[in-house]
């Protein structure tokens, strides 16, 4: 009888362990292969290979990312990498020939128009590389977007070596606006943004900036800013691609 009790205890402990382990993985997403998100791009420093932001391929020669990711010497010291699941994977690499930041962007946390278009020196062609279409409609609460990148799996962890993804719902704008208003004392949630997270469970994190939020195989958001990662009161904030379609299309045409 004692033997059966011992087995039962081990069984319950195993279930609890697996539950906790899975919940921990959901916070930063589940590991994935780049074949599932062939539009996903790494932005690395050329000198040391450090991955500092993500991006999204919208044509074979243009990458959309967050304006706050733009650094000094961006043209001389940045390489875009596509077709690589790991931050150490070679994939297909291209230097940046030019870039265009939206004129309304201001270099402060919470600025609207947090969007930049990069023109690559040559098209990105290769296995597991495919541009994505732009958002065809404005997102609504409870629409579930797929976010992906190489950011932290939680606030205390190091950035991930391999790409992760998680599907999270768009959050009610009033809830998001009210909580950030209480935090900052001003309304930072603009109409050109949306909030999304599985509150307290799934969210983008540091290192995912500039990466995509995809809805029905269309690029609908760009990881922009937030407060921590997966905090119950503070969902991630995204630049709404639907609001900036004209800017993207004109930039791609003229760059």
From TrEMBL:
This is Peptidase S1 domain-containing protein. The gene is 101897434. The keyword Disulfide bond applies. Transmembrane segments: none annotated. Pfam families: Trypsin (PF00089). It comes from the Eukaryota. GO terms for biological process: proteolysis. Coiled coil: none annotated. PROSITE patterns: TRYPSIN_DOM (PS50240), TRYPSIN_HIS (PS00134). GO terms for molecular function: serine-type endopeptidase activity. The keyword Protease applies. Residues 1-22 form the signal peptide. Keywords: Disulfide bond, Hydrolase, Protease, Serine protease, Signal.
């Amino acid at each position: 009888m004692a033997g059966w009790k011992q087995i039962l205890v081990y069984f319950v402990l195993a279930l609890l362990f697996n539950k906790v382990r899975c919940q921990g993985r959901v916070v930063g997403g589940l590991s994935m292969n780049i074949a599932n998100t062939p539009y996903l791009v790494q932005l690395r420093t050329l000198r040391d290979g450090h991955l500092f932001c993500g991006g999204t391929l919208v044509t074979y020669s243009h990458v959309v990312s967050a304006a706050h990711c733009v650094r000094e010497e961006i043209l001389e010291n940045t390489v875009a990498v596509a077709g690589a699941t790991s931050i150490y994977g070679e994939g297909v690499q291209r230097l940046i020939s030019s870039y265009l930041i939206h004129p309304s962007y201001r270099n402060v946390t919470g600025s609207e128009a947090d969007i930049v278009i990069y023109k690559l020196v040559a098209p990105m062609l290769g296995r597991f590389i495919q541009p994505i279409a732009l958002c065809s409609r404005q997102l609504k609460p409870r629409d579930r977007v797929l976010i992906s990148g190489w950011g932290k799996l939680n606030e205390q962890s190091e950035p991930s070596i391999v790409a992760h993804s998680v599907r999270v719902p768009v959050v009610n704008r009033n809830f998001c606006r009210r909580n950030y208003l209480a935090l900052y004392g001003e309304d930072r949630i603009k109409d050109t943004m949306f909030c999304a997270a599985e509150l307290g469970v799934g969210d983008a994190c540091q290192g995912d900036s500039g990466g995509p939020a995809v809805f029905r195989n269309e690029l609908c958001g760009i990881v922009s800013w937030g407060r921590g990662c997966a905090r119950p009161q503070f969902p991630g904030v995204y630049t709404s691609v639907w609001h900036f379609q004209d800017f993207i299309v004109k930039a791609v045409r003229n760059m």
